Amino acid sequence: MNSAMNIALPLPPDNDIIQQGRAVVDLIQMAAQCLQTSLSVSGYHALFAIPPEIENLSRVRTLTFNHNYSLVEIPPEMEMLVTLETLSLSYNRIGRLPLQVCKLRYLCVLDLGNNALTWLPCAVERMKSLRVLNLEFNQLQTLPTEMTQVPSLESLCVEGNPLVSDDAAEGRWESNNPTKSSPLQEVRRPLGEDVKCAVCAMLLERSAYSKEESVSVLFVDIAGCRRVPLMSALCSKKCYDQFV
Hints:
By secondary structure, this protein is of the alpha/beta class. The chain folds into two domains: 1-163, Ribonuclease Inhibitor (Leucine-rich repeat, LRR (right-handed beta-alpha superhelix)), CATH 3.80.10; 164-244, no CATH class. The chain has helices spanning 17-33, 166-176, 198-203, 237-243, and strands at 38-40, 62-64, 86-88, 109-111, 132-134, 143-144, 155-157, 186-189, 213-222, 225-234. The longest helix has 17 residues, at 17-33. The termini are far apart. The model is unreliable at 1-5, 168-194 and 202-213 (pLDDT under 50).
């Protein structure tokens, strides 16, 4: 089969959720049968999730799901795309990046611009081949500290996010801790399943700490971006004190 051939089907109307979902499944199945190395699905405004049939694209290297304005969900089956090198998911409504995407060992380019992301998983450190990461115009306040463990990262775009500023963080820190001088910020949030405590991970004593989590923010230059706020999760004040 010709992996460079274009596959196109009539686009159902935007108000027909069922027909648009079926059309996308048909596109995926046709691409899988033709052993396509690339597939683009854009303009399906009623599509709210990438179908699990995506796992059948055994040879795809480039996958595009852009401008699907109702799209909020990336299925766990995405991790089956072991040959994937470029994944573009811009101009959707995606609120979280599932851990399965972080398992794509050959992924070089990840475009998540213009979505609704509020956080990234710590497992981003597993993306050893990632060179380009576009996160512009989301709702990110910080990035995980594990971003510094992505060895191939060359380009990081975070423009248009409500990132915590180092000046603001220093001001809050000094007002709460007048005897300290540090650019670290302490805040509180629920302890999520993908959040690991930086100190507990080293000491292997997580069970000894409370379930309430502290978060410290450190500002670094990374992949062409200056003063990016990176977040370290700490599950208690005891851990926080050891960290600082």
